[in-house]
Amino acid sequence: MRFGEVAKSFAQLEATGSRLRCVRIIADLLSNVPAPDLAAAVYLLQGQLRPAYEGIEVGIGERGLLRILAAVYDETEAVIARRFRQSGDLGLVAESLAGRAPPARLTLRQAYDGLLAVARAGGPGSVERKARLMAVLLRRAAPAEARYLVRIVQGRLRLGVGDATVAEATALGALGDCARKDDVEHAYNVRSDLGSVVHLAFTRGARGLAGVAPLVGTPVRPALAQRLPSADAIVKRLGTVHAEPKYDGFRLQMHRDGARVWAFSRRLENVSEMFPELSAGVRRQLRARRAIIEGEAVVWEPKTGKFLPFQVTMTRKRKHGVAEAAARHPLRLFAFDLLSVNGRSWLSRPQHERHARLSALVRGTRRDPVAVTEVLVTDNARELQSYFNAMIRRGLEGVVAKRPDAPYRTGARGYDWIKLKRAYQSKLRDTVDLVLVGYLAGRGKRAALGVGSLLAAVYEPRADRFRTVAKIGSGPTEKEWTSLRAALDRLAVRAKPGRVDSLITPDVWVEPSLVVEVLADEITRSPRHTCGKTAAQPGYALRFPRMLGGVRRDKRAEDATTEREIVELHRMQK
Questions:
Q1: Residue 515: which CATH number?
Q2: pTM score, two decimals?
């Protein structure tokens, strides 16, 4: 397949605002891609070169691209930079300059392999080698092809589609019905490689998707919990509950294959090198050669057993000075679930069986870095409330109550797991995670910072859209506002992103990528925001929202609080 056909489909996606139209365009594209190239086509649709957990980046910055375009198209860097300032899009600059290029000669495979070669060029002299490889690729590209090659390198593809839309298009193209989207999403949640899942759907159909099982070294999308306001409400909903402490740390999925151990974050990043003491603990303590377990990592003091604050725990997420940080702030992993043992999936097993098997597999003392979380099994709301109070006194966030007979539901937020945190009562006391989609210029003191408030949204997975719920004007320090604006400007776009649903027009739109934690007084109805808005009813908004801390690097935009959760929180207020 010619890369020009892919570029044509990308241009159609970019031009349409209809999600259904996007689904049909992608389904038509994937249906015409040869089977060996399906995974490559999907990665390019995602604006990446391999599954996200592999961490493959092209490694050419904006300045490097300016130099490459100047060399390829025989222009000065000053001219390229001026055109970039005018358009705000280096892809469009490349397209306009490539008008003098020869007719397209690139195939989809050549374009993909060429970009992958650029990304994998490393070692001494890699900057020059990457530049040469990218220049060769661009010299073979037609104008529209150059636009998307450059955007992929920048990480700013701007097609207005997310993984959920690609999954629905796969269901239409490979299985013949958009309603089969759940089959595709389930396989993707278990094996977080959309390229391989789409290839499987088109080559082996629904039966192939149904056979997908956890694979050591490939992260599984984590199960998520809903909220309820009280122990009474939880017991009324679940009956008997399997209750565990809710630790204030970060979630990790640990994979073991013999001596090799991987650690994956909540957003499926490979963070194995950051936590050597946990990897060593898994090798020493886990009585299975191959397994996938999940838990919460918290900084603790081995002598006293006390937990340190979340802010201290987060300092362990680093790429440099790892050994020193591990010695200063050792982590303990409180394992709470078992996903796979020796090649066999445990996802469909009930909660109580998974926990019992996990307890049998992990050995150790109170001073070891891996422990199995404690559990209370009860159908008594008073007993659950007493347990919750005890966890709060220990300095934890609360409890997570689980349905004892429930399977592990990958990538799903449901009432099989329910979290109870401090004071889910008359007003919104829990925080929510929102995606930044734009900002408004500041006034007064904020004028110097260039940003006065942030336009923030929730995620609506069915429509694969981000819907606004708040304008955030407080929380960060002056230094944090400056840093945040710089991060937002790197994601700035000239027009409203295709996946954003907003009635408010900010001064600067940004691609939905950055997630922030927000606390508000309550949730109210509002005609200005699109979260939960219907033709007959106004939307929902956060009252007096303020941002806590910095950007949540552990979460993708699609991991943000959902529209449904906001509606449920509003109901809980009553």
A1: 2.40.50.140
A2: 0.84
